[in-house]
Amino acid sequence: MNILDGKHVSQVILSNAKQQIEQMQAKIGRVPGLAVIIAGNNPASASYVKSKAKKSAQAGIHSTLIEFDAAVSEEQIIDKIIDLNQDASVDGILVQLPLPGHLNQWKILDHIHPKKDVDCFHPLNQGRILLDRSSIFPCTPAGIIKLLDYYNIEIKGLNAAVIGRSFIVGKPMAALLTNRHATVTLCHSRTRNLPELLRRMDLIVSAVGIPDTVTADMVTENVILIDVGINHIANYEDAVRLCDQEETAKFSRKGYAITGDISKQAFKKSSWFTPVPGGVGLMTVALLIENTVALFNQHHSLV
Ligand code: NDP
Question: What is the pLDDT of residues 143-167, one digit of tens each?
Answer without folding.
Answer: 999 999 999 999 999 999 999 999 9
